[in-house]
Amino acid sequence: MEAITDIQGTFTLHNGVKMPYLGLGVYLSKDGQEVSNAVKWALDAGYRHVDTASIYANEAGVGEGIKAAEIPREDVFLVSKVWNSDQGYDTTIKAFEASLQRLDTEYLDLYLIHWPVAGKYKETWKALERLYAEKRIRAIGVSNFMQHHLQDLLDGVEVVPMVNQMEFHPYLVQQSLLDFCKAHRIQYEAWSPLMQGHIFKDPAFQDLAKKYGKTIAQVVLRWNLQKGVVTIPKSSKKERILANADLFNFELSQADMHFLDAMDQGKRFGPDPDNFDF
Ligand code: NAD
Q: Are 238 and 247 a contacting pair, CB within 8 Å?
């Protein structure tokens, strides 16, 4: 595994593209000033990765935030996702163009299939492969793909997905899926790393945080990185955006890594990829 160094440190995807292992999530950040401020504060603080999606309806604000930060576009790793109702070959190409327009950019660093819509995701993947071949996207990947979805997709792809973005936190580790992705050089990425805020309710995390003189969020995000998992905590508050990146002056012991692994209870706060109807 690559060393964890600083806020701009990266993991290398199987095509050689370097993906910053810490990003800003913007789900539920409102389009306009709220999201553009969050993105600008994050980039000013040194973040170099922003995760949005067409369904978040805030791509325009994300694009404004990147411009306001006044750093070169090529220094930002920008991610969006194709929504379920846009899946299929032609509709995915159209959805991609619309995302680029809203983000006001020429290309994406990573484009993901948001959910594995049955009967659709293989055609969607072909569209992503084409956009990748045309160099409109630097890396392509999936989200919410369980092992059986990946196995089904891998059977016949030209390009193996570079990333799988999954719900991931101490209550939902899915170690066998992590191992499967690692074996196929698919970078694992955490969504809802802070359990959408529920993490702060469990006193077990408080004791661990005290031991390191850090916050619960910092300890859990550091656990993500030490497991080799890219993480994208969401906040639209400046202090929290800064605090969630203060992860590089301590290291969790192996015993504490195992302690967090052992909190796993297969519990989801988001929808189940095997049972969603949207
Ligand atoms: P999260 O686990 O990042 O938690 C966010 C919540 O925690 C917010 O309410 C925020 O105010 C609070 N919070 C953040 N930092 C805090 C801190 N330091 N102290 C106290 N509270 C804090 O949840 P999320 O937004 O669901 O997930 C992160 C990102 O993952 C999203 O923004 C989105 O980009 C992505 N995501 C992807 C999918 C998918 O299907 N691919 C699904 C959900 C989220």
A: no
Identify the residue whose C-alpha is closest to ligand 1 atom 37.
Answer: 191
Helical packing angle, 33-45 and 59-69, nearest 10°: 40
What does pTM read for this prediction? 0.98
Does the pLDDT at position 153 exceed 90?
yes
140 contacts 129 by C-beta, under 8 angstroms:
yes
- Give the helix ranges, DSSP H, for 88-214: 89-103, 121-133, 147-154, 175-183, 203-212
192 lines ligand 1 (CB under 6 A): yes
Burial of 159 (0-12, 13-18, 19+ CB in 10 A): middle
Q: Is the CB of 50 under 6 A from ligand 1?
A: no
228 lines ligand 1 (CB under 6 A): no
Q: Which residues contact 184 (CB under 8 A, 6 or more apart)?
A: 150, 154, 160
Q: 136 alpha carbon to ligand 1 midpoint, in Å?
A: 28
The per-residue pLDDT for range 199-251, each reduced to its tens digit, is 999 999 999 999 999 999 999 999 999 999 999 999 999 999 999 999 999 99
CATH code of the region 15-261: 3.20.20.100
